[in-house]
Records
---
Amino acid sequence: MAEGEEAAVAKAEAEYFSKDFDWESLKQQVEKNPSYQFHLLPHLPSSSDEQREEETRDSKAWQSFHVRHSAGKFFKERRYLLKEFPELASSPKFSKVLEVGCGNGSSLIPVLRGNKNITVYACDCSSETLERVKEILSANLAAAALDRFVPFFCDFASTGFPGWLACHSCRGMAPQREHKSCSGVGEFQMTQMRGLSPLTEGGCCIGGVDFVTLIFTLSAVPHKLMPKSIKECFSVLKPGGILMFRDYGLYDMTMLRFEPDKRVGFREYMRGDGTRSYFFCLDTVRNLFQGAGFSEMELEYCCVKSENRRKGKIMKRVWVHGKFQKPML
């Protein structure tokens, strides 16, 4: 291996390293710090919480968020995905992945670029974001990769996924409802969806997609809607399909920055712009996914130190990494 290649590999390995510190040690530090005690207390709903819930619809808040950050520079391309979830890189031909909450496409680019066998269905609750992600992908990917990209509008936590992702028999849900979220999709795109849809495979799709990716999406869903949302993901996976999860972990730096008045639930916070964030412990994630019918494959904390050289600060980031499988029939 050439010297330049060795340096590139070393840099990549350093980038993917996720055990910079011990989570249990961080837990002890946080729980002993008096200034963080309010994060640990049970949350009692107040009238101000109810008022904020009425005034702010999460989908509208995220639409506004993505419009403000429409330049596509707010998120970095998530190159670690193929390393952390190697199934995305080695999947067989004609594999299908559903990216839930695609945002500006930071998770889509490495998958479409890294695996020519995979078709990516990507949904978001913001039509403006979907238009922007098309522009970003067009500027960063070859035309052949764009042919394997199928975006569609969907607020999955509220309305569920459209019927064409999985048939009634495979969902085990009755009766299958008409999904109004697709009403704004053009006829050409709907034709493309039907052509790629697993419903064309012998009249019964036996699930829908091979993989579902939930990357920093579930934390933006109200906690009370999480069980329903995960069951929706379960319903559109083929038997044996895998859901890949990464999201904010308990005692992440961003959690500790929230002020007491931003709490809207236990470990659940709402920013000033109306977007929300939940911080997961392993037991919460395990219970949510097993409750939906998934089998656990992997579940752990990723603990990464990030340095802000300009301010001379070390930031401790905590994420939860998980893989869950839909049992075979």
---
Amino acid sequence: MARIGRIALIPTLALGRMPSPLRAAEIAVHPPTSPMRLRRVVERDLADGKLLIVTRDWQCEFVRESEDITVSGRQVAVEVDAPPALAPLSAIEKNRVDEGLFPARLDLTGQIVSMNTAQDDTAIRKGVDVARTIFASMPPGPLDGADPEAFMVQLIGTSAQAISRVPRDLFYPVAGEWTETRSVDLGDTQGEIEIRVLTTTRPDGLLERTERAVRTRYGGRDRHSRECQFCRKARQLSN
């Protein structure tokens, strides 16, 4: 059981280990003066071909000081699209307030130099307990064999693991596209991870959209996950 769960987490952990060749330019940036909306969409491919999608929005404000830029943010929306069997887990995620990134401090080139790393793991612990109950009561099927703890960490998506891998150039990345493929030794089988990153920016250099698509192949299985982040003027992502 645990073995399958660890493999399922490969896409999440791999993004933190593989450095992106995209680097922000070392020039001073001019942060927006109006509120912005940051949206993060996490999409996971479940074992039965169905999708688990968590969308979370934060209202952000940028304030430039003499030596740095402060980004404050508050969660304003969350949506969870999941199979009916996972309704109890979906409810936990929908009720969870995640503001672990904020406030963030940027240097004058837009790179994150510090952020809020405080985490409330209550939702994760509760979710793991609920997941164990659900999985124990279900007959063998598409989700059979999954590790409840690993599954819940994927559902939460912004736990300490996610916070630790937030890129320094989250708000001011370099536009471009890159793909990397690596082999992974899983003991009695070989796996392969393919990561594709596509980033676009606004004329002022602020993030417009970044997408990280991960394809994991192992033991005849082919799994996909995707994470997208958008930054728009608040009114443009209000719906």
